[in-house]
Specification:
Length: 369
């Protein structure tokens, strides 16, 4: 039986894309109950508590320090961590969020690399975090037996930045397959609205979205359409809030802060348009989440978003206020209703399930000697 340890230390209380990946991957792998694979999870008590799974399905290996914002975490991970792996006879260690030990251990290392924002948009990250990621990804590429990425776009970037990397497996993220629809009699106070979902950080294109929204309102003075921005602020990035507070439409721009997944479903269900204006992504998880509803989806014309959404998303040059305003106007005011849209969305979603993500990952584990 192959002994596999999965790192869940980055499963935080307010999970974004990386956290959701860790949670859903771990839960699905454990539910599969693969007879020739025994699972261990590396984390702390609060990480284990966030899993909605029978604890009897895995062996917890407790890390003494949180993975983030603790001065001793890296020291432990590059020293005593190896003893813990050896003691439990771990054969495969899956690092789920870039982080790899600086030396090879008595196990095969698999590392998930989510994106290359630190190389593509370095100015959008704090310098210390940028240097940290640069060092960690170099180490991961050097020491891993295999790498996991979520899109062909990231695979191409990896092969561009590194000569002769280890084998790279593209394993897309998943999404819950259940449709989200407005409940009878249910309304949200900000309706009608167009929706953005994601962390509030420089690469997400939120200032471009606000400018395009303002132009749309200028050209459509009778419109009551609001803009709802769902997400937590990272790196103390306050430009979007400053822009909104100074806008003549400030009473129509709403910041919700972090929204738990079950509440987020309501925002998707009631939205008349979902906009994903990111300048850079490793995948396109908000595209999948928006596909669970039936509203049109407008994305910045970048490869990861269009790779995920295919022909069922509308593309826009997000830096063009005029084009963005025109697309918002068309999709919310003049676009003919499309009864087949929800059905087509559901068909596309079947390609992206967490169960399939887990099956593909388990297959990779099986191939590693």
């Amino acid at each position: 039986m192959k002994r596999i340890c999965i790192d869940i230390r980055h499963l935080t209380s307010n999970p974004s894309g990386v956290g959701r990946y860790i949670k859903n991957l771990a839960e699905q792998l454990l539910r599969m109950k693969i007879t020739n694979q025994r699972y261990y999870l590396l984390g702390q008590k609060d990480n284990f508590a966030r899993l909605e799974i029978d604890p009897a399905l895995y062996t917890p290996l407790e890390a003494p320090y949180p993975a983030e914002k603790h001065p001793l975490s890296d020291i432990w991970f590059n020293t005593f961590f190896f003893s813990l792996m050896k003691k439990n006879q771990i054969q495969i260690f899956h690092s789920t969020a870039f982080i790899a030990p600086y030396r090879k251990g008595p196990f095969a290392l698999i590392t998930t690399i989510h994106d290359f924002v630190y190389k593509t948009y370095p100015a959008t990250l704090p310098a210390t975090f940028r240097y940290f990621l640069n060092s960690q990804v170099k180490t991961a590429v050097k020491n891993s037996r295999a790498l996991i990425v979520m899109s062909n776009f990231i695979k191409n970037q990896l092969e561009k930045y590194f000569n002769s990397p280890p084998p790279v497996r593209v394993i897309p993220l998943g999404c819950t397959q259940t449709r989200v629809v407005p409940q009878k009699g249910e309304t949200l106070p900000c309706s009608p609205y167009m929706l953005f979902v994601g962390n509030i950080e420089p690469r997400k294109g939120i200032p471009d979205l606000i400018r395009g929204y303002e132009m749309y309102r200028q050209k459509n003075p009778s419109s009551r359409l609001n803009l709802v921005i769902c997400g937590q602020t990272l790196w103390n990035y306050d430009l979007p809030r400053k822009m909104a507070s100074q806008s003549v439409y400030k009473n129509s721009i709403f910041f919700t802060g972090y929204v738990p997944e079950e509440q987020l479903e309501k925002y998707y269900a009631h939205s008349v348009l979902t906009v994903i204006p990111s300048h850079y992504e490793g995948f396109g998880l908000p595209v999948l989440e928006a596909l669970r509803a039936s509203a049109p989806i407008l994305v910045n014309d970048i490869a990861p978003l269009t790779e995920t959404g295919g022909n069922w998303v509308t593309r826009v040059n997000i830096t063009s206020e005029t084009e963005l305003a025109q697309k918002i106007d068309f999709l919310t005011e003049h676009s003919p209703s499309n009864p087949s849209r929800a059905h087509q969305y559901q068909f596309l979603l079947t390609k992206y399930s967490w169960e399939q993500c887990a099956k593909n990952t388990a297959q990779l584990y099986e191939e590693i000697n």
